Amino acid sequence: MRLPGKRDIPVALKTLKAGYSDKQRRDFLAEASIMAQFDHPNIIHLEGVVTRIMIITEYMENGSLDSFLRKHDGQFTIIQLVGVMRGIAAGMTYLADLGYIHRDLAARNILVNSNMVCKVSDFGLSRVLEDDPDAAYTTSGGKIPIRWTAPEAIAYRKFSSSSDVWSYGVVMWEVMSYGERPYWNLTNRDVKDTHTHIQYIVHANHTYTHKKTCVMIPAYLSLSLFLCVCVCVCVCVCVCVCVCV
């Protein structure tokens, strides 16, 4: 793309699928309106909007973080991975300071450029979930990304900066495991049931020892980093800790 008097710059285009509804069009334009408010090195930059329903953003050479990590499994140092997490945290702090709640923070919604700088993207929750049904769980209030969502948000549909912090803890785990799927082969129903038990423990001060709360830790993950993840996801219960080798 070339702007008048400017040099060529690579961009990414995001469009609606053919046959979109009026609501989808409104949501799409609302996403662009939200993105236009942000100016931060770890938030995807909006370059413009085309009236034929097209969002133009900066181009991120390495694509989504989850795919990037799986492609380069085991190739980065701990310092590099911490740098990735620090950048994501900076972007999310910026959003929180503006009073914005992302609600769908996950490695798939973080983009990586050629310098390994990570930027938070995808500010249209409902449309993303429609395109990725395996990442969603349907409740009475609609679809939510169950594996990345805080228990109180699942149970009561209460989203906040705190629920984004939970999601960030899951993203930290994704980064340190090089793009492993959270909760591995558990079904969305199993994940929801686990979260329900966590809610019960928090409110009733009980200890939960259900076998499905076993926390798997990558062998190279230091205890301090693991504890940081635990703080983010509010793991205040007794769990079985296993080492993934």
Automatic annotation (TrEMBL):
Q: Which GO terms describe its biological process?
A: axon guidance
What single Pfam family name could you report for this chain, choosing any that match? Answer: PK_Tyr_Ser-Thr
Q: What is this protein called?
A: Protein kinase domain-containing protein
Please state where this protein is localized.
Answer: Membrane
Give a Gene Ontology cellular component term annotated to this protein: plasma membrane
| Keyword set, alphabetical order | ATP-binding, Membrane, Nucleotide-binding, Receptor, Transmembrane, Transmembrane helix
InterPro entries xrefs: Ephrin_rcpt_TKs, Kinase-like_dom_sf, Prot_kinase_dom, Ser-Thr/Tyr_kinase_cat_dom, Tyr_kinase_AS, Tyr_kinase_cat_dom
